[in-house]
Description:
Largest sheet: 5 strands, mixed
Distance between the termini: 24 Å
Radius of gyration: 14 Å
Order of helices and strands: HEEEHEEEEE
Shape: elongated
Number of strands: 8
Amino acid sequence: MRGLAMLTTALLLALGGVSQAACRFDYGRLYFGFENPLKGEAESGKPCGFALSAALSAGGHGFRVAQPPQHGVAGIGDDSGMPVVGYRSAAGYRGPDEFVVNFTGGNARVHDLASGIHVYLDVK
Length: 124
């Protein structure tokens, strides 16, 4: 069942069905070689997402959901070459949820560092 939910999320992302308006995220900084926290809010049962423009512009690749959320589904999609993280909580769920996205990247001095984004959500 979780596999089907992940496929549904991936299809929503690929088709542009993820609304960034259904969630809000705090501004976050991205440091390669670390797990970076990102806090936000999501509307219960509604798909939402955010683009990983900073990670992509710094050569990030190999994006994947390493730790899935406990109360919903998360997936990685593509929006015109830009990686997008999508999330949808279980219908009617309200409360905290979290998941981790891992990727590899770096800068001119350091290449291919394992990195992550630990997403903490308050589902309303």
